[in-house]
Amino acid sequence: MITTRNNQYWLPEVFNDFFNNDFVSKKNATSPAINVVEKENEYDVQYAAPGMTKDDFKVSLDEEQNLVVELEKAEQKEDDNNGVFLRREFSFSNFQQKLILPEDVDHEKISASVANGVLTVVLPKKNAEEQKKEVKMIEIQ
Questions:
Q1: Contact 47, 69 (CB under 8 A)
Q2: Can you give the three-state secondary structure of the chain, one letter per residue?
Q3: Which of 7, 75, 84, 126 counts the highest number of beta carbons within 10 A?
Q4: What b/e sequence results for 69-93 when a residue is b if at least 16 CB atoms lie within 10 Å of its CB, and e otherwise?
Q5: Segment 102-130, tens digit of pLDDT
Q6: pLDDT value at position 132?
Q7: pLDDT tens track for 32-91
Q8: CB under 8 Å to 113, separation ≥6 — which residues?
Protein backbone atom coordinates (compact mmCIF):
# COMPACT_ATOMS: atom_id res chain seq x y z
CA MET A 1 0.00 0.00 0.00
CA ILE A 2 1.22 3.48 -0.82
CA THR A 3 1.75 5.66 2.21
CA THR A 4 3.32 8.76 0.67
CA ARG A 5 0.00 10.63 0.37
CA ASN A 6 0.84 12.98 3.24
CA ASN A 7 4.39 13.54 2.09
CA GLN A 8 5.23 17.21 2.67
CA TYR A 9 7.27 17.24 -0.55
CA TRP A 10 4.31 16.42 -2.79
CA LEU A 11 3.96 18.80 -5.75
CA PRO A 12 1.50 18.35 -8.64
CA GLU A 13 4.24 18.93 -11.22
CA VAL A 14 5.97 15.73 -10.06
CA PHE A 15 2.76 13.75 -10.62
CA ASN A 16 4.48 11.47 -13.12
CA ASP A 17 7.15 10.50 -10.59
CA PHE A 18 4.51 8.64 -8.59
CA PHE A 19 4.10 6.15 -11.43
CA ASN A 20 7.59 4.72 -11.05
CA ASN A 21 7.80 1.23 -9.54
CA ASP A 22 8.91 2.60 -6.18
CA PHE A 23 5.53 4.26 -5.63
CA VAL A 24 3.13 1.97 -7.50
CA SER A 25 1.48 -1.10 -6.06
CA LYS A 26 0.86 -3.94 -8.54
CA LYS A 27 -0.55 -7.39 -7.90
CA ASN A 28 1.30 -9.22 -10.65
CA ALA A 29 4.32 -8.85 -12.87
CA THR A 30 2.29 -8.85 -16.08
CA SER A 31 0.62 -5.47 -16.12
CA PRO A 32 -0.53 -2.99 -18.74
CA ALA A 33 1.79 -0.18 -19.71
CA ILE A 34 0.51 3.24 -18.66
CA ASN A 35 0.86 6.80 -19.86
CA VAL A 36 0.07 9.85 -17.74
CA VAL A 37 -0.62 13.07 -19.59
CA GLU A 38 -1.04 16.42 -17.85
CA LYS A 39 -3.25 18.92 -19.64
CA GLU A 40 -4.32 22.39 -18.57
CA ASN A 41 -7.58 21.20 -16.95
CA GLU A 42 -7.01 17.49 -16.34
CA TYR A 43 -4.70 14.52 -16.06
CA ASP A 44 -5.27 11.54 -18.38
CA VAL A 45 -4.11 8.10 -17.25
CA GLN A 46 -4.02 5.62 -20.14
CA TYR A 47 -3.68 1.84 -19.75
CA ALA A 48 -2.72 -0.28 -22.77
CA ALA A 49 -4.83 -3.43 -22.58
CA PRO A 50 -5.31 -5.03 -26.00
CA GLY A 51 -8.40 -7.19 -26.34
CA MET A 52 -9.98 -5.93 -23.11
CA THR A 53 -13.43 -4.37 -22.86
CA LYS A 54 -15.03 -2.02 -20.36
CA ASP A 55 -16.57 -5.04 -18.60
CA ASP A 56 -13.07 -6.33 -17.79
CA PHE A 57 -12.15 -3.21 -15.76
CA LYS A 58 -13.17 -1.73 -12.41
CA VAL A 59 -12.13 1.84 -11.61
CA SER A 60 -12.73 3.27 -8.14
CA LEU A 61 -11.42 5.45 -5.33
CA ASP A 62 -10.46 3.66 -2.12
CA GLU A 63 -11.01 4.92 1.43
CA GLU A 64 -7.81 7.02 1.18
CA GLN A 65 -8.96 8.56 -2.13
CA ASN A 66 -6.34 6.68 -4.17
CA LEU A 67 -7.30 5.73 -7.72
CA VAL A 68 -7.70 1.95 -7.97
CA VAL A 69 -7.71 0.28 -11.39
CA GLU A 70 -8.48 -3.43 -11.54
CA LEU A 71 -8.57 -5.78 -14.50
CA GLU A 72 -9.93 -9.30 -14.44
CA LYS A 73 -10.31 -11.50 -17.51
CA ALA A 74 -10.88 -15.22 -17.64
CA GLU A 75 -7.82 -17.09 -18.87
CA GLN A 76 -8.01 -18.14 -22.50
CA LYS A 77 -7.77 -21.93 -22.67
CA GLU A 78 -5.29 -23.50 -25.02
CA ASP A 79 -7.02 -26.11 -27.14
CA ASP A 80 -6.95 -27.54 -30.65
CA ASN A 81 -9.22 -24.80 -32.05
CA ASN A 82 -7.24 -21.86 -30.67
CA GLY A 83 -3.78 -23.37 -30.97
CA VAL A 84 -0.99 -23.48 -28.41
CA PHE A 85 0.82 -20.36 -27.27
CA LEU A 86 4.52 -20.57 -28.11
CA ARG A 87 5.13 -17.20 -26.49
CA ARG A 88 2.69 -15.17 -24.40
CA GLU A 89 3.61 -11.69 -23.20
CA PHE A 90 0.25 -9.98 -22.83
CA SER A 91 -2.08 -11.86 -20.57
CA PHE A 92 -3.79 -9.58 -18.10
CA SER A 93 -5.93 -12.09 -16.26
CA ASN A 94 -5.66 -10.31 -12.90
CA PHE A 95 -4.24 -6.85 -12.30
CA GLN A 96 -4.65 -4.13 -9.68
CA GLN A 97 -2.89 -0.80 -9.37
CA LYS A 98 -3.32 2.03 -6.86
CA LEU A 99 -2.24 5.54 -7.75
CA ILE A 100 -1.96 8.50 -5.40
CA LEU A 101 -3.86 11.44 -6.84
CA PRO A 102 -2.61 15.02 -6.73
CA GLU A 103 -4.45 17.35 -4.38
CA ASP A 104 -5.96 19.34 -7.28
CA VAL A 105 -8.01 16.43 -8.70
CA ASP A 106 -11.80 16.82 -8.51
CA HIS A 107 -12.81 13.39 -7.21
CA GLU A 108 -16.48 13.94 -8.07
CA LYS A 109 -15.82 14.37 -11.81
CA ILE A 110 -13.46 11.44 -12.55
CA SER A 111 -14.51 9.44 -15.61
CA ALA A 112 -13.21 6.44 -17.55
CA SER A 113 -13.66 4.95 -21.02
CA VAL A 114 -12.22 2.15 -23.16
CA ALA A 115 -11.47 2.53 -26.87
CA ASN A 116 -9.13 0.61 -29.18
CA GLY A 117 -7.61 -1.45 -26.36
CA VAL A 118 -6.82 1.58 -24.18
CA LEU A 119 -8.53 2.42 -20.88
CA THR A 120 -8.42 6.18 -20.30
CA VAL A 121 -9.17 7.60 -16.85
CA VAL A 122 -9.76 11.35 -16.93
CA LEU A 123 -8.89 13.17 -13.70
CA PRO A 124 -10.28 16.72 -13.96
CA LYS A 125 -8.44 19.42 -12.04
CA LYS A 126 -10.26 21.67 -9.60
CA ASN A 127 -10.32 25.29 -10.62
CA ALA A 128 -8.89 27.92 -8.28
CA GLU A 129 -12.34 28.84 -6.91
CA GLU A 130 -13.13 25.19 -6.03
CA GLN A 131 -9.80 24.85 -4.26
CA LYS A 132 -10.50 27.97 -2.18
CA LYS A 133 -13.90 26.58 -1.12
CA GLU A 134 -12.14 23.75 0.66
CA VAL A 135 -10.30 26.12 2.99
CA LYS A 136 -11.92 26.03 6.42
CA MET A 137 -11.02 28.31 9.26
CA ILE A 138 -11.01 26.72 12.71
CA GLU A 139 -12.04 28.90 15.61
CA ILE A 140 -9.53 28.93 18.46
CA GLN A 141 -11.22 28.59 21.84
A1: yes
A2: CCCCCCCCCCCHHHHHHHHCCCCCEECCCCCCCEEEEECCCEEEEEEECCCCCHHHEEEEECCCCCEEEEEECCCCCCECCCECCCCCCCCCCEEEEEECCCCCECHHHCEEEEECCEEEEEEEECCHHHHHHCCCCCCCC
A3: 126
A4: bebebeeeeeeeeeeeeeeeeeebe
A5: 989 999 999 999 999 899 999 999 887 76
A6: 67
A7: 889 999 999 999 999 998 888 889 899 999 999 999 999 887 665 555 566 777 877 666
A8: 54, 119, 120, 122
Residues in the chain: 141
Side chain identity, residue 20:
N
Residue type at 122 in one-letter notation:
V
